[in-house]
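Same chain as my last thread, 85 residues:
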Amino acid sequence: MIFADAALAKRLEATEAFACAQFAEARKRLFPESTSMWMKCAGTTVVFDGVDAPTTQTFGLGSSRSWGRLRSRRSNGCSASATPQ
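reply #2:
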């Protein structure tokens, strides 16, 4: 019996992405001088809250086979890991 599948993984990833993006928005409201921001790009949610912040993450990266489009749009020497499905 399979309890987890790709659909569940995508829903969990989307939930975590939403929560992290909401954190970035709240932080920006409370501290307007912060660099906290988020965006969606090529099916991936990208959250930036500073170089060393634990909330600086990507969500859904690789789940829509869009890594190439995201990488070409924002190529700044950063690294990311993705788990293929």
